[in-house]
Structure formats: structure tokens, C-alpha cells
Known about the structure:
By secondary structure, the chain is of the alpha+beta class. The protein has a domain at 1-49: Winged helix-like DNA-binding domain superfamily/Winged helix DNA-binding domain (Arc Repressor Mutant, subunit A).
Amino acid sequence: MENNRPxxxxxxxxxxxxxxxxxxxxxxxxxxGVTEATVTSRIHALSDxxxxxxxxxxxxEHLRTxxxxxxxxxxxxxxxxxxxxxxxxxxxxGSVMMMMGSPEIHVTALVEDNDDLLAxxxxxxxxxxxxxxxxxxxxLKAYKYRYDVVSLSPALSLGEPQGDPLDDxxxxxxQIDGRxxxxxxxxxxxxxASTIRERVNRMLTTRQIRIGAVCDYRSMGFEIAAxxxxxxxxxxxxxxxxxxxxxxxxxxxxxxxxxxxxxxILSGRNLDHLSEIVRNKLQTVPGVxxxxxxxxxxxxxxxxxxxxxxxxxx
Length: 314
């Protein structure tokens, strides 16, 4: 690895860990034709440089708070960064991003139901000083969710317990270090390693969690990210979704409520590359009527521990 950019061996190791974050270093070494010590040192180096993190991620389909919605926030009379910090303090705000231009803030909220969403909007975000206007779109269905490339920055946030207390305690240990041994988890929690093993295997088998490598998008060669709201003709809606899901540069595709009926997150190597993606990919979507693209200026909060297991990463 040079200048926090992975080399070929690093990428080979990352691919192994994407498939199984708890795959033994010895097994990876045998598959790649290198020593176990080399694999171990590479994993530590990638983690220390915040290039990659092996962690457990929870499938929102198994949680109480599993309703995704997107909130655009317009600011008046106060610093957008200060407002974003205030919004990020709310548990329901899963992702908070400062945007270039207006609206100044974009929030991905994860709530239990409509009443929970209304409380978040009226009693929390709407009461933050400087918030002028909100626009909300509900996620009807996620068609693509690239959970292995995120922002591994200080904005990374882990969530609150939501289920069985012992499962939650185990998941918390695996979120901190996805490669921690069952024996060590058992020692920390005062539980036998066999119980930990059974619990982890059950959660993996039932798709309650995924344990794998999560990489910082900048270390993967993507220097700029953006969100886009698309309005697509009803007759072409399915064709548009299929087209967008197939694009490698697009990490998230969701059908949403409102005048815009598709939401996407995309990334590029630089501004020129992102502009090319918008021209050649977004503006050529079947049936597209209108496209609104906003650049991400700074992520303030990101719940990388919550994902939708709708599609394996490509």
C-alpha cells in the first residue's frame, strides 16, 4: 500500500474479506500464495490507515426501525455545519451530509413508522435553530445498496441496541472488530465460545447481519460523491431501475415517493468523471424527465452498521 492506496495484493485480500470477513488469515494466504504473516500485516495496515474495516453490519429488515426516508434540509440564518452537527445528534438521523449549494443538508433517516417519522421531523429536526424548510421522500423499495464502500471517516457512527440483549452485545463486539475470535467475545461478555459461535452463525444464516470488509470510497479511487433525484415516466419506471442498478458507479438505487420517483447515490474519481457519469448515465436513463444532482461537501454522520441486503456488491 502506498499513500493509503491499496495495491494488487491489498485488493485481493479485500476481495477475500468481502466474501467472509472472518476468513482465517491462513486460508487467505493459501488462496493468494503468500504467507500468513503477510496477510495479517496487510489487514492491520489497511485498518490502521482507515482504508478498510472488517465489521458486522445489521440488515434493517430485521430491526424495528426499518423505514428509510430521505430529507432535504434548507438552512437560513445559521451555519450549515452547526445545524448538521445538531441534526446528527438525533438517533433517527442515520446519515447526515453537508451538500454543495441548496438544500444545504441531506439526511437519510431510519424510523419505525409514520408516527416516528413525524416526531423526528416536527419535534427534532424541525426544532433545530436555522432549519428553514424540509422536503421528505419515503423509500418504497431499495433495489441496490452498495454496503461495502462507505465513508470511513470520523463521521462513522454505530447505533443503539435493537434486539435480543445478548445478540446486541455480540454484534457490538463484531462492529468494533469483525475478526475478533469467538473466544475473545466470550471472555468479554462472560459467555462460552460455543454460545457465541452458535449465535453468530444463526445471525449470519438468517441474514440478520453481514460480516465483511467495508472500504473507504476515497481509498477505492473515488474522490467525489453525489446524490441525485430522478423523475422518470411511469411507463419506463422498471426499465430505468434496471438500467441504474447495472451501473458500477452508482452505489444506491431506491424507488421513492414524491415528484421524483428514484433516488441514487453515485461517486466518481474526480469532478470531470462525475460530470461524465451524469451526462452519459443519469441523463440517458430510460424515460427520464428531470434529474437533480447535488455534490456531497462533507459527511457529518454515517451509520455504516445499517444496510439493506438487497444485492451483493459487484
